[in-house]
TrEMBL record:
Family: Belongs to the class-III pyridoxal-phosphate-dependent aminotransferase family. ArgD subfamily.
Origin: domain of life: Bacteria
Cofactor binding comment, as recorded: Binds 1 pyridoxal phosphate per subunit.
Enzyme nomenclature, EC number: 2.6.1.11
Entry's Gene Ontology BP terms: L-arginine biosynthetic process
Annotated InterPro entries: AcOrn/SuccOrn_fam, Aminotrans_3, Aminotrans_3_PPA_site, Class-III_PLP-dep_AT, PyrdxlP-dep_Trfase, PyrdxlP-dep_Trfase_major, PyrdxlP-dep_Trfase_small
Pathway membership: Amino-acid biosynthesis; L-arginine biosynthesis; N(2)-acetyl-L-ornithine from L-glutamate: step 4/4
GO molecular function: identical protein binding; N2-acetyl-L-ornithine:2-oxoglutarate 5-aminotransferase activity; pyridoxal phosphate binding
Binding residues annotated for N(2)-acetyl-L-ornithine, in chain numbering: R141, S280
Catalytic activity annotation: N(2)-acetyl-L-ornithine + 2-oxoglutarate = N-acetyl-L-glutamate 5-semialdehyde + L-glutamate
Protein name: Acetylornithine aminotransferase
Misc. remarks from the entry: May also have succinyldiaminopimelate aminotransferase activity, thus carrying out the corresponding step in lysine biosynthesis.
Length: 398
């Protein structure tokens, strides 16, 4: 049996995999089992932001693997402690961090902090525990993060869900205000929705959310698992908006492909968790943390500015495509987090691009999602746009 047949026979069919058996990767490229080269404009769902097999990251991880890969969180692992310091310093003063293994865990931790904080800071009616989330959001696949996810298609078979998550519309402050009550403890949002179709928040909306949280003593939680780590041209997407959350979560590209999640709580709730409130056996794995330190070392202002320049170059070319092909409804996003909303399902276009050597993704049926490694060049953009245009032309002739 070949690899695809083995997968088909032995795995639960939870993924619709693209027709690509990976042999190796480097920077912005992937090679398949037949040695064919692909330009990667997806980066493993915004995971390999500093490029596949980044040399500095690999070197740091290998060095750590040679000295120790696990001691348990009952002792001190220096790479983990140093990463925590670096993350807090680059996030906000007075913050504290909890390290886990994945995005869902990072959000789960943020939700638990909010629940305990609501217990410690009750309203006249008692405990506060309700969290306002948003339609179209995605916060993970554990039952609690699924319950915070505002998309029915993920809920269907898994009810009853966790209680006390309610949903407002992004960029609609009235819809948020209507849901707030004496039990509300927090508002949780992706500053740029990812799985939901690359939908950025408006600046006025996020600023109003911040003010609303301050006025009512709610925590503001930003899920930056997809839009953080330089994806939007800043380390955090929220830096584009001139406001800060009370808790921010990271995962995906934090360790550039090794599993790692982080929940960073600002001054207001940094001291909420005490001994025994939370924990994880693997959380903050030393090898992942050594890799993450190397990643943060790469993501400096020069690196980010270069990614913004290339994002601008790509954006102009995509807007040109939109002017030429009426099947494109709109191009939106921030930095190198870009969505092209189509009037048709994008599946065939993704397959066409793969066939021509370009890896992109489609989310929410109609949105072509581009999340290239932040190191792509103009040459890569030219190559990608040429293939995309080919796909659009081909679509017209179908
Ligand atoms: C991917 C993602 C998650 C879940 O992360 P996992 O590591 O798959 O658990 C949560 N929130 C957002 C915004 C994501 O993009």
């Amino acid at each position: 049996m070949n690899i695809k047949q083995i997968e088909d026979e032995y795995f639960m069919h939870t993924y619709k995999r693209g027709d690509l058996v990976v042999k190796e990767t480097k920077n912005q490229f992937i090679w398949d089992e037949n040695g064919r080269k692909y330009l990667d404009f997806f980066a493993g769902i915004s995971v390999c932001n500093v490029g596949h097999c980044n040399e500095a990251v690999i070197k740091a991880a290998k060095k750590q693997l040679d000295s120790f890969s696990h001691v348990s969180n009952l002792y001190y692992a220096p790479p983990q402690i140093k990463l925590g310091e670096e993350l807090v310093k680059r996030t906000f003063p007075g913050a504290r961090v909890f390290l886990s293994n994945s995005g869902a865990e990072a959000n789960e931790c943020a939700i638990k902090i909010a629940r305990k904080w609501g217990f410690l800071n009750p309203s006249k009616e008692g405990n506060r525990y309700e969290i306002i989330c948003f339609f179209n959001s995605f916060h993970g696949r554990t039952l609690t993060t699924l319950s915070a996810t505002g998309q029915d298609k993920f809920h269907k078979f898994f009810k009853p869900l966790q209680e006390k998550f309610v949903f407002a519309e992004i960029n609609n402050m009235d819809s948020v205000k209507k849901l707030a009550n004496n039990r509300t403890v927090a508002i949780m949002i992706e500053p740029v929705q990812g799985e939901g179709g690359i939908i950025p928040s408006d600046e006025t909306f996020l600023k109003e959310l911040r003010a609303f949280c301050d006025d009512n003593n709610f925590l503001l939680i930003f899920d930056e698992i997809q839009c953080g780590m330089g994806r939007t041209g800043k380390l955090y997407a929220f830096e584009n908006y001139g406001i800060k959350p009370d808790i921010v979560t990271l995962a995906k590209s934090l360790a550039n492909g090794l599993p790692l999640g982080a929940s960073i709580a600002g001054e207001k709730c940094a001291g909420t968790f005490l001994c025994g409130d939370h924990g994880s056996t693997f959380g903050g794995n030393p090898v992942s943390c050594a890799a993450a330190l190397a990643v943060l070392n790469i993501i400096n202002s020069e690196f980010l500015n270069n990614s913004l320049k290339i994002a601008e170059y790509l954006r102009i070319k995509l807007e040109n495509l939109k002017d030429k092909y009426s099947v494109i409804k709109c191009v939106r996003g921030l930095g190198l987090m870009i969505g092209m909303d189509l009037k048709i399902n994008g599946k065939d276009i993704v397959n066409y691009c793969m066939d021509k050597g370009l890896i992109i993704n489609c989310t929410n049926d109609t949105v072509l999602r581009l999340l290239p490694p932040l190191i792509i060049t103009k040459k890569d953009v030219d190559f990608a746009v040429k293939i995309l245009e080919g796909a659009l032309k081909w679509q017209l002739t179908k």
